């Protein structure tokens, strides 16, 4: 899942980004209100974390403008602790409000709660005998637990949520690692091989297919797993 952090404090931004990335999310960021609004409107995000005190354009204006075009969940961060400010944020369309200073554990819990509430397909995804629970980061095949790392779970979720689509390596690299694909980099191929060992190799029915010259596809149809 891709999150956008709009925060001008460099130290706070680095701390939040590091924690969220360690929790398995892909995080992009902006340090200016105008840049943040441009990013927020230019790409699909699972959630936006928005500071209120920003240069260029304050968080209230960013939120107000964003709500004219997007229903992406927004968690506002602010040092202001007054009831008036909290009410203003909620009236402008904020989904949650967190006062600085805060613990990262609380922010992470609120992020997960918003993602659960706004997941378009709920938290459980099923493809053939594969069942994935995004809230618990758990996967099973034919009722058998499949032990996955966070990145492996994210990769499998991406493939499963876009079943029957051929996903190019460029898209996978961007969505899962947040990087521009380099033809000299085999990070996607290595990750797919590791995923197959866990998800396909122990089971007679193969779900993940390599489409030569194009990318990878996960399908309910019987796959050769090439």
Summarize the structure.
The protein is of the alpha/beta class and 226 residues long. It contains eight helices and eleven strands.
Structure commentary:
The protein has 226 residues and is of the alpha/beta class. It has two domains: 2-118, Response regulator (Rossmann fold, 3-Layer(aba) Sandwich); 124-223, Winged helix-like DNA-binding domain superfamily/Winged helix DNA-binding domain (Arc Repressor Mutant, subunit A). The protein has helices spanning 10-22, 33-42, 59-66, 83-92, 104-118, 150-161, 169-177, 187-199; strands spanning 2-6, 26-30, 47-51, 74-78, 96-99, 124-127, 130-133, 138-141, 144-146, 206-211, 215-223. The protein has a five-stranded parallel beta sheet with strand order 2-1-3-4-5, with helices on both faces. Strand 4 (74-78), helix 4 and strand 5 form a beta-alpha-beta unit. Helix 2 packs parallel to helix 3 (59-66) and helix 6 packs across helix 7 (169-177). The longest helix has 15 residues, at 104-118. 27% of the residues are buried. The model has no long low-confidence stretch (mean pLDDT 87). GO terms for molecular function: phosphorelay response regulator activity; transcription cis-regulatory region binding. InterPro entries: CheY-like_superfamily (IPR011006), CusR-like (IPR006291), OmpR/PhoB-type_DNA-bd (IPR001867), Sig_transdc_resp-reg_receiver (IPR001789), WalR-like (IPR039420), WH-like_DNA-bd_sf (IPR036388). Residues 122-220 form the OmpR/PhoB-type domain.
């Amino acid at each position: 899942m891709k999150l956008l952090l709009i925060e001008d404090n460099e130290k706070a931004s680095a701390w939040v980004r590091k924690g969220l990335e360690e929790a398995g999310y892909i995080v992009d960021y902006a340090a200016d209100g105008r840049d943040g609004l441009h990013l927020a409107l230019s790409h699909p995000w699972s959630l936006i974390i928005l500071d209120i005190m920003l240069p260029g354009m304050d968080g209230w204006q960013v939120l107000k403008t964003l709500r004219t075009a997007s229903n992406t969940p927004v968690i506002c961060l602010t040092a202001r602790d007054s009831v008036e400010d909290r009410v203003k944020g909620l009236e402008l369309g904020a989904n949650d409000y967190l006062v600085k200073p805060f613990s990262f554990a609380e922010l992470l819990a609120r992020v997960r709660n918003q993602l659960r509430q706004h997941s378009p397909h709920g938290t459980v995804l099923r493809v053939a005998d594969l069942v994935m629970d995004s809230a618990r980061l758990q996967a099973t095949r034919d009722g058998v637990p499949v032990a996955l790392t966070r990145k492996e779970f994210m990769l499998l979720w991406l493939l499963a949520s876009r079943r029957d689509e051929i996903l190019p390596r460029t898209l996978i690299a961007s969505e899962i690692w947040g990087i521009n694909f380099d033809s000299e980099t085999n990070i996607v191929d290595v990750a797919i091989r590791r995923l197959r060992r866990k998800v396909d190799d122990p089971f007679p029915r193969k779900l993940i297919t390599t489409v030569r010259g194009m990318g990878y596809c996960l399908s309910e149809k019987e796959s050769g797993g090439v």
